[in-house]
Structures are given as structure tokens and as C-alpha cells.
Amino acid sequence: MSDQDQPDRDDRVLAGEYTLGLLSAEDAAAFEARMVREPELRALYAQWAEDFAGLTDDITPQAPPARVWQQIEAGLFGTRERGSWLRRLTLWGGGIAAAAVLVLAVFLPDLVERGPVPPVDPPYVAQIAAEDGSLVVQAVYDDETGTLFVDREAGGAAPGRALELWLIAGEDAPVSLGVMPQDAQAVLRVADDLRGRVAGAVLAISDEPEGGSPTRAPTGDVLAVGPVQES
């Protein structure tokens, strides 16, 4: 990826490190939260992911012999202080760490499972928030794929209860989009017949029994609302 025409080199490097899985869990979560709000950052991540994915297009995955691991480790780290290879990668400079991860990616492309990531350049965003800030959920939506990425920045369900997400389009009755997962970040799939109704609608979160509303309407308090807007 070229430095030319990049708006912020630090963000470009950060996006590359995120794509390679070099960030700590805390830094990765902060980066993902920024991607919800910043289309430019999502574009940087998408470009890095495309570039790295292209490196292995013509390579058939192979399980390397034990001696290959030994040679890689000996070349990168020597024979002393043989601790966790992940720790050693973290301690080395960004360039060497990135090179090592790329080598591993060639041999073990499925080694690291990434968490949910927001759609790239989604046309719609929403902040679903309580008035007192006790519950805040950022959402981005891609109407072409029906992908709704949610990032719960504050708050959560009460013990023994669940948070359910609702779509309110115009004067229509609320339609459930599903129970919010326990994980802070998640991807929800919007049904085909609802995709075109999200734009300009309102998203709301209600307090419900575990498993969600027993009816087709909210039964508990509406805790947070937010309009869906163009990004």
C-alpha cells in the first residue's frame, strides 16, 4: 500500500496492524469502534485486507514440518529465551513482526479467527442511545447485503433479562430485528423483506425476558432509540 494520497499515516499503519492481528484486545476494540464512525478508516482496513488476501491467492495451504518452525524461529529470534512466539512477535519492531505474521499467514491462513467487523463504506449509520447515556449502541447498515453491525459502547442487559432490537419504519408497528448478543460487537442479518425499510427508520432497544419478547411487540421498557441516517 502506497503512502501517496493517504490522509493519515498513523491511521494507515494502525489499520495494517489491525488487519494482521498485531493489536492488543483493547486496541483492537477501540479501532473497531472507530470504524463504526469513520468511513475513511473502514476504507483503509478494506484496502489492507484486500492487499494481504491477494498474497495467498495462488498458494495452496500446507502444514509446515517442525523443522520449518525451528528455522523461522531461529532466524528471527535466535536460540535463547524461547518464550511464547506470540509474545516475541509483539516485542519485536513492527516491520519484523509484520513479516513474521505474513509468513505464518502463508502456511496457516486459518490460524487466527477475526471477530465481527463492520461493513465497508455502509450507506447508513445510527446511534441508539438512552437519554442518560446508560445504554449506547453504534450501528452501521449496508442495505445491499442486509448487514447490520452493532457496537455496544455502554450498558447491557439486566441480570436475567435481554436487550431486543426493533425497527420502527414510519407509522408501522415495531418489527424485531432480534435479541442483542452478549458480545459488545456483533453482526445481525436483516431479512430481505425489511432491507428497504431501514433507511430513514428508527432503531429502538427494549428490555425483554431472556430469549426476547414473547409477543411480536416490545413488552418491556424502551431503553434507547436512534434514527437511521445516511453516513
TrEMBL record:
Alphabetized UniProt keyword annotations: Membrane, Transmembrane, Transmembrane helix
Residues covered by region (Disordered): 207-231
GO MF terms, alphabetically ordered: sigma factor antagonist activity
Residue ranges occupied by any Anti-sigma K factor RskA C-terminal domain in the UniProt entry: 97-222
Residue stretches spanning the membrane: 89-108
One family name in Pfam for this protein: RskA_C
GO annotation, cellular component aspect: plasma membrane
Alphabetized InterPro entries for the sequence: Anti-sigma-K/W_factor, RskA_C
GO biological process, alphabetically ordered: regulation of translation
Protein name listed in UniProt: Anti-sigma-K factor rskA
